[in-house]
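Honest question from a wet-lab person: if I give you the sequences of every part of a complex, can you actually get the arrangement of the whole thing, not just the pieces? Trying it with mine:
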Amino acid sequence: MNKINVGVVDTTFARVDMGKAVIHEIENETTKVNLIRYTVPGIKDLPVGCKILFDKEECEICIALGMPGPAEKDKVCAHEASQGLIICQLMSGKHIIECFVHEDEGETSDQLIEICDDRARKHARNVIRLLFDKLWLQEHAGCGIRQGFPDAGTIKS
Amino acid sequence: MNKINVGVVDTTFARVDMGKAVIHEIENETTKVNLIRYTVPGIKDLPVGCKILFDKEECEICIALGMPGPAEKDKVCAHEASQGLIICQLMSGKHIIECFVHEDEGETSDQLIEICDDRARKHARNVIRLLFDKLWLQEHAGCGIRQGFPDAGTIKS
Amino acid sequence: MNKINVGVVDTTFARVDMGKAVIHEIENETTKVNLIRYTVPGIKDLPVGCKILFDKEECEICIALGMPGPAEKDKVCAHEASQGLIICQLMSGKHIIECFVHEDEGETSDQLIEICDDRARKHARNVIRLLFDKLWLQEHAGCGIRQGFPDAGTIKS
Amino acid sequence: MNKINVGVVDTTFARVDMGKAVIHEIENETTKVNLIRYTVPGIKDLPVGCKILFDKEECEICIALGMPGPAEKDKVCAHEASQGLIICQLMSGKHIIECFVHEDEGETSDQLIEICDDRARKHARNVIRLLFDKLWLQEHAGCGIRQGFPDAGTIKS
Amino acid sequence: MNKINVGVVDTTFARVDMGKAVIHEIENETTKVNLIRYTVPGIKDLPVGCKILFDKEECEICIALGMPGPAEKDKVCAHEASQGLIICQLMSGKHIIECFVHEDEGETSDQLIEICDDRARKHARNVIRLLFDKLWLQEHAGCGIRQGFPDAGTIKS
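Yes, you can. This is the full assembly:
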């Protein structure tokens, strides 16, 4: 069986190498996937990066990794990148799992690295589920699943 | 007569299973519909989820269920998702009923669950009306109909 | 001569029946138009409502009527709807006259009803002018014409 | 030689007739242009107005004139219109020079009229340069050129 | 071997000539590139400027240089321009490296000029890397690379 191409798009701007964590996680979980990594300068370059992987590299899905800085301007960049990723998905009819970690999400370096690693690995598993195990997702609908933090869980009456 | 495919797209991020409420409501109301459920990780994955159901599963309409968290960042995600759902509708020429409940809409867990259930069921009925009973909608134009809360009603002079 | 199809798209969410005012105004002004009314649940359903009227009902122009609530969240919905209406126009190459009244524009119920009625009727006349009397618009360029309120007028030195 | 069609799109909402200033300026500067004026009700009608001039009237370029009011709501309208103008340009592969004057840019009526006139005339000249004299623009790259106000100039070390 | 066309799109609004710095940097680094400069009036004209270079001048990549002013209104313009640049990239399937310097990023004229020069030259090198040396980018993923300022570096535990 042919392997399925999966794009891993990340940036030189990010201060943690989440692409590496994604690749480890996916290679550890499955042999049915061919990973194509594409590194772009910044977060706003991610949408076209995914577009190129969909169009030129026949990727079936992408994961887009970004790490916006703490300033207000950085929030705007992340917002623009997110809008672009959504439009790219609609143009391609394919999923892009957005995995962004804001630099102010962690209070210490260790905390931030932990969030990045956890979110990257969990979203890597979401990529695999969207390809091979959609039932898992359906069975966890409304379960308050989180990435980067512990699950929030279902709200109980 | 062939059944009409209706997409129910929801998330593992949500903390209440609104998809279940939608499915109960629609199955209770009509036998003319074939429900296709598709669960994605988060709210920003909903637009392409609907696009895939329109393109690959021949859905005539979708309902998109999401539950943004209480933080400012979550509001931005909901905004991006809403924009994507509107663009998806324009690309497909088909309705997506957006049914979002913000986690801060209810003050207690019970209240939040009640809002989710009410909004999901009422919007499920809107899906059915858009398919089979557009006259009901027209007869209630300007009537201040609400989902999740009691109707606001028409403003009287 | 064949009549021209004009779409009137409104919502069950609105608390004043502006569609009725539009229909009265247009029927009173011209017999050259065939009105097609389409009522959707909320303001964010208006863009695809217009798209469907352009594509399936051969409308030459639409008027989109909405009444966002007073909360911040409602302003965001109105913003998303407006963006969608603009994209819909660009995709179709046809005008959609947006006629929104924010629930906090009037201080009393009577005032709000009056604003709705005035804005709906004046924008109904704009629809007619875009179809049959573009010269009127050109002759009033820069004249500070308003809908819902008295004209602001041209600024004099 | 055939004249080049240039669209002048303005609104009845504006309180100063900038279209007139644009037409005077262009007619005074060149005889190689055929001006097509199209007046729409408000600022959010400008994008499709330009689209129609590109598609139906074979315009090579448009200038879009608008005058948003001073309220927060008006700023949002201007933002939506600007986004639409950019999308319209990308769809058409043609320039639209946006010439907006916010009603709160001037402190007195005279000041506001002066800003409108200056910005309209200078942007009219930008239209001509984009058609016939791109070198002028290139030679003034980074020169801090302004419209509506005196040039800011190049920053000197 | 045919040279690759690279677009350099800048504005007359900017107060520093970043286009010149980009051209110096690229001509100094490689002879495999043919530079096409296109100067437009303002930042919101950049997206269609790039679109024209992609469609009419067969550019493989563009760099878009802009310098928004310090006012709130200027931030909105920059946001609209960024959104347009992302949509343009998605339509073309080609990269546009956005190089914006906000006028309030530097406290003195000298500082601002230095930021402009540094960001322009470093982004010029990013253009070259995207064309000829994608491996460099991949090897620097997550390294906290910055333009206009010193690199932030990888976060260490």
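Two things worth pointing out. The interface with chain D takes residues 75, 79, 82-83, 85-87, 89-90, 93-98, 102, 123, 126, 130, 134, 137-138, 140-147, 152-157 of chain C (CB under 8 Å). The beta strands of chain C are 4-11, 33-40, 61-66, 96-100.
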